[in-house]
Amino acid sequence: MWYWYLTGEQRAPFPKEWQIALAVQHKFHRYFPGSPRCLECGTPMRGIGSLLLRPGSKPASFSSRICSSCEVTARKEEAGAEVFLSMLFADVRDSTPLAERSGTAEFQSLINKFYKQTSKVLVEQNAMVNRLMGDQVSALFVPRFAGKDHPKIAFQAAKDILHVTGHGQPSGPWVPVGVGLHTGTAFVGVVGSSDSVNEIAVLGSAANLCARLSSQAAAGEILISEDTVKAGQLDVTGLERRTLELKGINHPVNVRVFKT
């Protein structure tokens, strides 16, 4: 289920009863107007059709392409799949001294603004907003939601994040942010218990590498792994090359550096 959920591809044919149920569901839901529609069940998530068919229906907490009802179903599956995807981690730089200078209330307001602005960018680029934690935002660009050009989409999202946080402006950023990008194979799925607390997480060495890249990115920088450059055939003409030794990664990592 999860491989289909993330890629739109089937490793094995669905059971016949699933195929029939999905076909009937999508055909029935087409009669109810509204947009956008859930990729999984076809339910309109806005408009009159949403009110008539499924009152309270809305986009999932992590993606605008899936409805909240399908998210609940997915979270009940204590499983996941290894998929080829692009990952983005964005960190607020020097958050500890920033918090000390700002005071608790002001710093909380700043971080909330950071979450809202970056989440909006990521949702617009069809990312799965994976985690909002502390001073970091992470997102997954999987083929089914972001498309086959997910490395390019992730790079554009990273640039948009720097833009909305004020990097490149004469007055400087309103919050200093560094971003890491990496493309590779990772496990994406539900971690925890379906009966209590769980989350949709990304696990594996590729995810760890991306997190390390973001921790090394200075304010206003995007560190792009060579794997992302190659997978997305990105135009990196003129971008600085760096070779990094990252904690927990047992080999040098080559990156390109985008600066505002």
What's the name of the CATH homologous superfamily of the largest domain? Nucleotide cyclase, GGDEF domain
Quickly name the level 1 CATH class of the largest domain: Alpha Beta
Radius of gyration computed on alpha carbons: 20 Å
Characterize the biggest β-sheet.
Answer: 8 strands, mixed
Number of strands: 8
The arrangement of helices and strands along the chain is HHHHEHHEEHHEEHEHEE
Total domains, how many?
Answer: 2
Let me know the average pLDDT.
89
Tally of alpha and pi helices:
10
Roughly how much helix do the residues carry, as a percent range? 25-40%
Report the CATH topology name of the largest domain.
Answer: Alpha-Beta Plaits
Notes on the structure:
The protein is of the alpha+beta class. The chain has two domains: 2-76, no CATH class; 80-259, Alpha-Beta Plaits (2-Layer Sandwich). Helix content is 39%, strand content 25%. It is built from ten helices and eight strands. Strand 2 (128-133) and strand 3 form a beta hairpin. The chain is globular, with a radius of gyration of 20 Å.
Write the layout of secondary structure elements.
Blueprint: H1 2-7, H2 16-29, H3 48-53, H4 68-76, E1 80-92, H5 95-102, H6 104-124, E2 128-133, E3 136-141, H7 143-146, H8 150-164, E4 177-192, E5 198-203, H9 205-216, E6 221-225, H10 226-232, E7 240-244, E8 253-259
Parallel strand pairs: 4-6
Antiparallel strand pairs: 1-3, 1-4, 2-3, 4-5, 6-8, 7-8
Helix pairs in contact: 5-6, 6-8
